[in-house]
Structures are given as structure tokens and as C-alpha cells.
Design brief:
Length: 156
């Protein structure tokens, strides 16, 4: 009887330890990164008005997202998501590097945007003129997350 009692006690302790590990794991966040963001020191080497699409491709690589038009800019997007076992993933950080080009293919503007409370926040801007292109795309990119109302879409 003593052997059976000791065996049951060991099994109960193992089950309790397993339940404790599972409950702690469920409360621990895991993080996942998406996208590609060039290093700031590599971006700093790009010269507005001098570099071209080809030199940008060589310096920092091609972006995952480009503008809809061939003459449009490059958009490098990086997001960080927080996951808990019991909740849907939540985006906690997003950064966009926007590089726009002139019609001749030289770099016109370099801007870095962040996401804070659902608002587009300019983190860095190197501009050759005051007209910043591509802002509507970025506003759509940042503004669409979490703001879709199905009733509005259905006309109700």
C-alpha cells in the first residue's frame, strides 16, 4: 500500500507541476515581427536628389511594398505583434519608411512614420520640397486598422 501511495503522490505532483507550467505559459506574451525595415545607418547614406531606384535597391534592398504606379515610391513596413494564448494577436508597433522618387527616378523624399494611438506620426523627414507625396496611401495604411464598421459598409 505504501508503494501505491508514494506512486500516486508522485503522479499528483507531476500533474500539478504540468498544470502550473501550462497556466504560466498561457499568461506569457510571445512576440512576432513582420516585414523588413532597413537599418537607419544604411538609410542615412541615401542622398535626396542624387540616388536613384537602382542605388536604393543596392543600398537597402527592394521593399515589400511599392506604390501602385511605377513612378511611385517605395514603402518598407515593419510591424510587431503581441500574442497571448487566449487572445487574438495585437499589433503593438508599426513603422513605415517611405522613399519617393521624381519622374526621372531620383530620390525626392525620405520619411519615416510610426504608429501611436492609431495616428500617423512622422518620425523623420528629409524632403526636397514642401509637397509630400504618398501621404494618402500612408493614412489609408495606418487608418484602416481597427476602424472598419460593418454597418457603414452595408449602408446601415
Amino acid at each position: 500500500m505504501s508503494y501505491l501511495h508514494d506512486r500516486l503522490h508522485k503522479v499528483a505532483r507531476s500533474v500539478a507541476a504540468l498544470l502550473l507550467v501550462a497556466s504560466v505559459t498561457a499568461c506569457t506574451a510571445t512576440y512576432r515581427n513582420h516585414g523588413y525595415m532597413p537599418l537607419p545607418e544604411d538609410v542615412a547614406l541615401i542622398q535626396v536628389g542624387k540616388d536613384t531606384r537602382e542605388s536604393v535597391d543596392a543600398a537597402i534592398g527592394k521593399p515589400g511594398t511599392a506604390g501602385l504606379l511605377a513612378e511611385s515610391g517605395y514603402y518598407y513596413v515593419r510591424s510587431r505583434f503581441e500574442h497571448y494564448l487566449y487572445n487574438a494577436p495585437k499589433e503593438i508597433d508599426r513603422e513605415v519608411l517611405a522613399i519617393t522618387f521624381t519622374k526621372s527616378g531620383t530620390v525626392e523624399n525620405i520619411e519615416r512614420f510610426g504608429l501611436e494611438d492609431g495616428q500617423v506620426v512622422v518620425l523623420e523627414r528629409r524632403v526636397t520640397d514642401s509637397n509630400v507625396k504618398g501621404v494618402s496611401f500612408l493614412r489609408q495604411l495606418f487608418g484602416s486598422f481597427g476602424r472598419i464598421n460593418l454597418a457603414d459598409q452595408l449602408g446601415g
